[in-house]
Amino acid sequence: MTQDTPHRPGHQDRPDRSFLFVLGSSRADGNSELLARAAAAHLPPDVPQRWVDLNELALPDFQDGRHDAPGRQPHETEELLRQATLDATDVVIVSPLYWYSLSAQTKRYLDHWSGWLNVPGSDFKARMAGRTLWGVTAMAHDEHEVADGLVTSLSHSAAYLRMHFGGVLKGTASRPGDIHSDEQALIRAKTFFQGPTPLALFPYEEADAAA
After folding, report:
1. pLDDT-based confidence at 66, cuts 50/70/90?
2. pTM recorded for the entire structure
3. Is residue 78 within 8 Å of 8, Cβ to Cβ?
4. Is the link from the previous residue into 74 a cis peptide, with omega within 30 of 0?
């Protein structure tokens, strides 16, 4: 299910931080994953990393049972993924831009968040509040504004859960390995996880705050 980078003592500036990288591409070692790994290489060595490839999980389609009683308990694979999500202070969604949004694998994972809101005793929303959501995506376009739909989906998801949003690291690539030719994306990757992570807000909340 995962490839973990063990915690190593050393840097003590943020010892309580841990990253979950959720890989949602339909192919292994895709450009989005390569870009995410380039960014992750610049995290402090004492920050644990867990990598989950959704293609390797038998995760069923989400079934909305929020109005059923009693609340539905997650299946074994789903529960492992839910716990991995809750164990991380930083969740990184790694998805190529498919039809100007998230991949089907990634969307299925996020749909399960809806179910986790109602797992008895989970307190999923309260426990996710204050954590940070990030995104990494590769696309065929040089014009990265075409990924605005993906960015909005992640930003609004973070706002609903009262998470911080670290933004989306974008790169241009199509064929396998093309991301290595996007020098600007690789430069941005070096400092991506060092950037500020403001509390995510819906547009109407931003307008109220500015008023």
Report:
1. low
2. 0.89
3. no
4. no
